Amino acid sequence: MNFDMNRTWSQGVALVQANWQLLAVIAGIFLLIPGMLMYVAFPDLMTGLQGNPDPDRLAAMFGEVAGSLVIYVIFAVIFQMIGYTAMIALMGADRPTVGEALRLGAQCLPTLIGVLLLMILAYIAIGIALVIVTGLVSAVVGLIGGGALAAVLGVIIAIAMMVVMLYVSVRFCLTTPVVALEGQRNPVAAVKRSWTLTGSHSRRIFGFFALLFIAYLVISLLIGAVAGLLASAFGGGSATNIVLGLTNGAMGAVVAMILCGLLVSMYQQLAGSGSESLSKTFD
C-alpha cells in the first residue's frame, strides 16, 4: 500500500479528536508533568536556555548539574515511553481502557528499552564508520596538498552522516506501534517489522516528518516568544519557571498526542488495516 500524507494526517487528527479526553489525561501525567518538573528541578539551567545564552555560562551550568540531569533524563525518558505506548494503544483497534493501556505501556517497556539500545548502537556504528571514512579521505587529500578540499569533504561527510541517521530514524519510526498494536515483544523483530513497513515509503515519510517539523518549529517559536513575555512580566523567580515549564510541558503533551495519532494512522495505512481499525475507533 502506498503512503498517503493527506490520509495519514486526516486520520491521525481524527483519532486524536475521537480520544482527546483520555489522551489528555495520559499526556498530562507522562509528558506535561515531567516537562514542568524540569523547570523546578533545574531552574537556573532551563531559564538560562531561553533567549541567547552565553555558551561559557551555559557550559558551566551544565557541568554543575550534569550528574543529576542525566539521571532525571533517563527516568523521564522511561516514564514517557510508557505514556507514548499507552496513547498509541488507546487509539488502536482493540480500544483498551486507560488502565489497560497504561498496563500495556508498562509491559512493553523492556522491549522499547531494547529498541532504544539498538537505535543507539546503530547510530554509534554509523558514526564510527563515517568518522573512519572521513579520516581516510582527509588523510589522502592532505597528502596531495588539498587542505581546503579536505575540510570541504569533512563537511560533506558530516552532512551525509546526519542524512543516514535521519534515514534510520524514519525506518524505525513504526517500532512503537508494532510493539503496542501487534504485541511484538522481541526488540529485533519489532525493528525489522518497522523496517519492512516503511520499506519503499521512506522518502515520503521523511518528507512528511520534515514538513511537520518545520510547522512545529514555527509554532513553538511563536508560543515560546509569548511565554517568554508572560514569564518576564513576573520578573524572574519561581513564578517565571512555572510559566515556562507549564507552557513547554503543555506544548510537549499536545505534540505527543498528535504524533501518536499520526503514527497509529501511518501504521494502519502501511499495515493494511486502516479502514477497519479506524471504523472501530469511532464505534
From TrEMBL:
It comes from the Bacteria. The chain crosses the membrane at residues 20-42, 69-91, 112-137, 143-168, 205-230, 242-264. InterPro entries: DUF7847 (IPR057169). It holds the Pfam family DUF7847. Residues 12-270 form the DUF7847 domain. Keywords: Membrane, Transmembrane, Transmembrane helix. The keyword DNA-binding does not apply. This is DUF7847 domain-containing protein. It comes from Alteraurantiacibacter aquimixticola.
